[in-house]
Amino acid sequence: xxxxxxxxxxxxxxxxxxxxxxxxxxxxxxxxxxxxxxxxxxxxxxxxxxxxxxxxxxxxxxxxxxxxxxxxxxxxxxxxxxxxxxxxxxxxxxxxxxxxxxxxxxxxxxxxxxxxxxxxxxxxxxxxxxxxxxxxxxxxxxxxxxxxxxxxxxxxxxxxxxxxxxxxxxxxxxxxxxxxxxxxxxxxxxxxxxxxxx
Length: 198
Known about the structure:
Blueprint: H1 9-17, H2 21-43, H3 46-65, H4 75-94, H5 121-139, H6 143-154, H7 159-166, H8 170-190
Helix pairs in contact: 1-2, 2-3, 2-4, 2-6, 3-4, 4-7, 6-8, 7-8
């Protein structure tokens, strides 16, 4: 028989539903960094992220106890979907999303694609500066665009997983990524930034 540490997240969720509180503690320890990082990246405020994180896990507990989790998918994706919904509720209560202007050019090539190549100290410094510039521009994106970029590039989720997590169609997820890239390119042009790693 497997120990709790050897169980998958999905198995731990079932164990918790059956009354094993230690299973939930282990689930929380496995997922808290990933979920909190995601929330913090989207809302950009530590106290708000704490509140949303706590509300997310209260909803997770409540839904598990109500039997609303089905083991048909990844548990972490299910929790991520709940976190997304809590974030969207928070945004509805606190702010309106900005409208994105559509520039004439529509080139969707990757911004600074490829891994950072570190040949020398100067190259490393340039690459670090480019990545800092990209993070700074991402922080200025509307929440829905920032969320898709984060899920795609930092959590390496597919567009299908992003669509399922955010409860939108794949076309909507792709559209948000497209607008994010367009907006980041516009910001790069306006600030005379070069986004090609060396």
